[in-house]
Design a protein that fits this description.
The protein has 17 helices and no strands. Helices cover 52% and strands 0% of the residues. By secondary structure, the protein is mainly α. The protein has a domain at 182-280: Serine Threonine Protein Phosphatase 5, Tetratricopeptide repeat (Alpha Horseshoe).
Length: 280
């Protein structure tokens, strides 16, 4: 027969658990960026790999805070560089998120895997850097072996994420690094569609120069020309037509780009698309 646990015993157990679950002084000092205190604790023998209540080690906390000085100090005291958060993020993921390029370069020089993926979305540090428009980090990661066209769990590449977030300077930089110009994402949307919708002519040209399919369709049958027409993007419409875009393709709604322009009453776009010399 099981006997009930006395209330006093339960209180002791709860207090013991709370004590064990509390973050260490070292982790607290790292989070507060108290370099002198961190050095003092490490010299006194504090465990550099003791995880806190969230599973974060001091090194991961230092990377998240973007403190290259603390990252170096912890590694010099045998902190495990390859430690991961419970969600699979590495110190490199966290350092990218902090925006500190020097910390990212240091961790890469320490041999951290530039292609390690976290668990939730299957994204690498390069996905993080591209999605945040951190072009310098993108370049550093690729130079250290990051795969430019690595697909996430959803199948999207770093360049696609950069385009989705509107970081078109990063998109262009990735094209220079020979990333695929025509990756497809959710609803079959491609970077060319996003650049056309945004009216970013420099990126539109760069994608077309890199052989993105000018007539690629989204899941609803829209092309880049539909998007450009729908945003009153005369420059984009003219560029796409000059590159051979088909103005007669109909979307799932049965609309051509000209139909879109007429529905929205965009006079200049109507004039360009209805012109006899507009390429088909």
């Amino acid at each position: 027969m099981n006997r009930p646990i006395p209330m006093l015993t339960m209180a002791v157990l709860a207090a013991t658990f709370a004590l064990r679950a509390e973050d260490s002084p070292l982790l607290k000092a790292v989070t507060a960026k108290q370099v002198a205190e961190v050095r003092k604790l490490l010299d006194a023998g504090a465990d550099p790999n003791a995880a806190g209540t969230t599973g974060e080690t001091p090194l991961l906390a230092a990377a998240r805070e973007g403190s290259g000085e603390l990252v170096r100090l912890l590694i010099s005291h045998k902190a495990t560089a390859t430690a991961r958060m419970p969600n699979g993020e590495t110190a490199l993921h966290l350092a990218v998120g902090s925006g500190n390029i020097d910390t990212v370069r240091f961790l890469l020089n320490e041999g951290l895997n530039a292609n390690a993926v976290e668990d939730a979305k299957g994204q690498s540090p390069l996905h993080y850097a591209a999605a945040q428009g951190r072009t310098e980090m993108v370049q550093a990661l690729v130079e250290s072996g990051a795969v430019t066209d690595l697909g996430s769990r959803a199948g999207v590449t770093p360049l696609w994420l950069a385009a989705e977030a509107g970081h078109f300077d990063t998109v262009r930089a990735m094209l220079v690094l020979e990333a695929d110009a025509d990756p497809s994402g959710p609803e079959q949307v491609r970077p060319l569609h996003m650049a056309a919708r945004a009216g970013d002519l420099e990126t539109l040209k760069a994608l077309l120069d890199a052989e993105a399919d000018v007539d690629s369709k989204t899941a609803d049958g829209s092309t880049a020309l539909h998007f450009a027409a729908g945003e009153n993007g005369e420059g984009a419409v003219k560029m796409l037509l000059a590159r051979g875009a088909n103005r007669d393709i109909k979307s799932a709604k049965g609309e051509t780009p000209l139909d879109v322009a007429k529905r929205l009453k965009f006079g200049s776009i109507i004039a360009v698309l209805a012109a006899p010399d507009a390429k088909r």
